[in-house]
């Protein structure tokens, strides 16, 4: 699971789970906070669909944090004002970039949970889509020559 | 007449602010919660986020609560809040072809690849007040949800195994036939930079990136009025909605520490409109073509995205003949915060200005009386 896949799922996992992971990592590693979790903005860009012209849509409120765990840098960012979540994602980022074998077991456990959470999120979206699917239009031709 | 500086009113201002807070709560009702506003006033929340140019449903709900439902005031509060925070990063451009749709319709073709989905819409319902909502109880709300879910009769296997589809763009059908005008390099910014109206003031003529950015944070009513004027006769655009989509798109940004990697921030709700209009001029090879106007905004706001798409095309006119074709006229008047701020300033004392006007009028009248 690469950073993109991991963060796609982690952005929507329950707070309690992140709190548990935070506890695991803080127990096993030496954490230094480089940049405490702080609110900020990320400017969102979009691309117009024909000429592929890129433009700025507006800013997203985010909270981001930078830490080191055993000297390895990690960065976490979430949408909204959620300092604990941003901090925990930074911890996760650090251990996933660490090569120390002591993290192997933790990463494996988190990977398993992330896969499970990813599947739950997929099912949730599939259910939402099923609601929408009920509104699919079935056109009937009323008069044809 | 000399200017006279005056002081006063500070106590009255303080008391007015206290009275404002009192008026919001004076009827002794249970204070409305942020969750209630966010979930049951979702379209107002989306409008505030879009016009405030800040995506955060919680803060938008708070702004609406504080503004007692005044959408422009709420977007002003959001814009002001946003100005206190640093910009940490830029996202990659969102890919709306990956949108998980809530709604998708086309007015150009009946049979579009992937189908048309009405989604949660009032477009085809009677605009009658539902009197039963006057006394809606929590139990009734729960019953409505249960009934909806029971009637769906969802197949657990389908939910467990299926994949949420993504949809090709409807305008691709026209593109494949060579019927869509694709701007050449000379017609668009090619130096890789993206203009930003939050960094540089508007100057004319503008780039398309500037026009789109100004419109996406513009006030819905203003955009709607200008777009309406252009299709009613003060312009020459005959739009057809190629595709209107509402849905969730994933947002990604480069990792600030490990730049070869990408971070996902989550998903946001956007509305996108592609407006097909007939090109007035034939292209180099003499073929008739269509152009596509583009609209995209935060949240679910169809009028805004469609109006933006229409105005995106009206403003390409080389010799503007109507207000909606004049980019300076449109872009200087669509920002709700600027326009309401300017109109509001008329409520401030203009005693000196008016005294000058008054003296001038009196002096003209005296002169006329003397001449008679």
Automatic annotation (TrEMBL), chain A:
A Pfam family assignment: PhnG
Top-rank lineage group of the source organism: Bacteria
InterPro entries, A to Z: Phosphonate_metab_PhnG
Protein name as catalogued: Alpha-D-ribose 1-methylphosphonate 5-triphosphate synthase subunit PhnG
Organism name: Paenibacillus macquariensis
Lineage, top ranks: Bacteria, Bacillati, Bacillota, Bacilli, Bacillales
Automatic annotation (TrEMBL), chain B:
UniProt protein name: Alpha-D-ribose 1-methylphosphonate 5-triphosphate synthase subunit PhnI
Matches recorded under InterPro entries: PhnI
Originating organism: Paenibacillus macquariensis
Pfam families: PhnI
Domain of life: Bacteria
């Amino acid at each position: 699971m690469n950073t993109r896949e991991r963060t796609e799922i982690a952005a929507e996992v329950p707070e309690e789970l992140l709190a548990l992971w935070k506890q695991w990592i803080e127990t096993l590693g030496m954490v230094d906070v480089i940049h405490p979790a702080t609110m900020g903005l990320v400017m969102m860009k979009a691309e117009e669909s024909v000429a592929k012209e890129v433009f700025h849509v507006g800013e997203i409120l985010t909270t981001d944090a930078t830490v080191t765990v055993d000297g390895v840098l990690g960065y976490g960012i979430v949408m909204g004002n959620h300092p604990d979540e941003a901090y925990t994602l930074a911890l996760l980022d650090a251990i996933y970039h660490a090569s120390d074998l002591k993290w192997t077991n933790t990463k494996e456990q988190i990977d398993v949970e992330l896969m499970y959470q990813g599947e739950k999120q997929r099912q949730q979206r599939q259910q939402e889509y099923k609601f929408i699917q009920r509104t699919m239009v079935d056109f009937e031709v009323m008069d044809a020559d | 007449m000399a200017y006279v500086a005056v002081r006063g009113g500070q106590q009255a201002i303080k008391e007015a602010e206290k009275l404002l807070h009192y008026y919001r709560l004076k009827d002794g009702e249970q204070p409305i919660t942020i969750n209630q506003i966010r979930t049951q006033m979702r379209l107002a929340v989306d409008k505030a986020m879009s016009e405030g140019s800040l995506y955060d449903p919680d803060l938008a709900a708070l702004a609406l609560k504080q503004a007692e439902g005044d959408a422009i005031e709420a977007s002003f509060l959001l814009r002001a809040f946003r100005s206190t925070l640093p910009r940490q990063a830029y996202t990659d451009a969102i890919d709306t072809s990956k949108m998980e749709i809530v709604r998708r319709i086309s007015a150009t073709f009946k049979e579009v690849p992937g189908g048309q989905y009405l989604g949660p819409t009032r477009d085809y319902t009677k605009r009658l007040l539902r009197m039963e909502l006057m006394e809606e109880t929590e139990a009734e709300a729960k019953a409505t949800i249960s009934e909806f879910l029971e009637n769906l009769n969802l197949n657990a296997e389908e939910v467990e195994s299926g994949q949420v589809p993504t949809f090709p763009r409807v305008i691709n059908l026209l593109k494949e036939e060579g019927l869509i005008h694709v701007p050449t390099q000379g017609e668009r910014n090619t130096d890789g930079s993206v203009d930003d109206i939050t960094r540089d003031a508007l100057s004319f003529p503008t780039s398309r990136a500037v026009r789109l950015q100004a419109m996406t944070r513009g006030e819905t009513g203003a955009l709607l009025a200008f777009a309406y004027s252009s299709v009613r006769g003060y312009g020459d655009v005959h739009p057809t909605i190629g595709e209107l989509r509402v849905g969730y798109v994933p947002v990604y940004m480069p990792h600030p520490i490990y730049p070869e990697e990408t971070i996902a921030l989550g998903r946001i709700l956007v509305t996108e409109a592609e407006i097909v209009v007939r090109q007035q001029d034939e292209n180099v090879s003499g073929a008739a073509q269509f152009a596509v106007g583009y609209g995209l905004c935060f949240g679910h706001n169809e009028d805004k995205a469609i109006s933006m798409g229409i105005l995106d095309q009206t403003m390409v006119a080389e010799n503007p003949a109507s207000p909606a074709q004049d980019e300076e006229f449109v872009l200087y008047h669509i920002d709700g915060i600027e326009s309401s701020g300017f109109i509001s300033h008329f409520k401030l004392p203009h005693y000196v200005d008016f005294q000058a006007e008054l003296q001038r009028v009196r002096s003209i009248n005296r002169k006329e009386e003397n001449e008679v």
